[in-house]
Amino acid sequence: MNKEQFLTTLNEALSPLSRSEREDILSDYIEHFRAGQENGKTPEEVAEALGDPSELARAYIEELAGGKGSGPDAEATGKPDPGSGEPVLQATQEPSLRPYAPAGTAQGTPASRERPQGSQALGIVLVVLFNFFLGVWILIALACTVIALWAVPISLFGGGLAVMVGAIVSFSGMLPLIFSLLGVSLIALSGLAGIGMYYVSYYFIRFIAIYIKFCAKLCREGI
User: What gap in Å lies between CA 43 and CA 24, rounded to an integer?
Assistant: First the structure.
């Protein structure tokens, strides 16, 4: 079950409640999905951890119905006022909602919101200092290395092509055939080297994306 299916099922199951109550409950679960995805979980994993939306809705309905049907603050009462003889209506008080909270998280509050603001500022400072003095230079060095390694397949391809053309133009007899085979071999090696460099470049770009995402998360959530 994905996020949309979970929220749709939960909303339909909460139909006995008022619109404002449903919106309050749904907003809490939307926040759970957001916090879970920030922690690397898929919407399906978050939905599975939250449980059956129908059961959750039933628990909310029973809780709210029980809170409104009992207790001195649950509903308006008609106790007479000794001075006037008229009934006095007491204010209705809705019970507080208790949304599902994953393990390790304060109830109703995502883990990302529990971190103090000072921790977030410290994370930003550490990210800036590390990248200024070390991180950016390491990435630049790795990028230069990847670019330099691309010279290998390019040189092999150019060398093989040059050998083939030179052999055909400059030699006679069996030499053109021999050098042509050598040129084809160099071009084939350049193809293999190019495939290898493609994967090196791909994983290097993925590493940069993961690193940037990690720095952004550290700045946003702190240490």
Answer: 20
List, in sequence order, every residue forming a beta bridge with 80; answer none if it has no partner: 87
* 215 and 123 in a common domain: yes
Burial bucket for residue 57 (CB in 10 Å: 0-12, 13-18, 19+): buried
Q: What is the pLDDT of residues 120-161, one digit of tens each?
A: 788 888 889 988 999 899 999 999 999 999 999 999 999 988
pTM over 0.85: no
- Look up the domain containing 137 and give its range: 117-221
For residue 87, what are the β-bridge partners?
Answer: 80
Question: Are 1 and 51 in contact, with CB atoms under 8 Å apart?
Answer: no
Radius of gyration of the chain (CA): 34
Q: Residue 113's closest CA among 3, 8, 220? A: 220
Nearest to 183, CA basis, from 200, 165, 169: 165
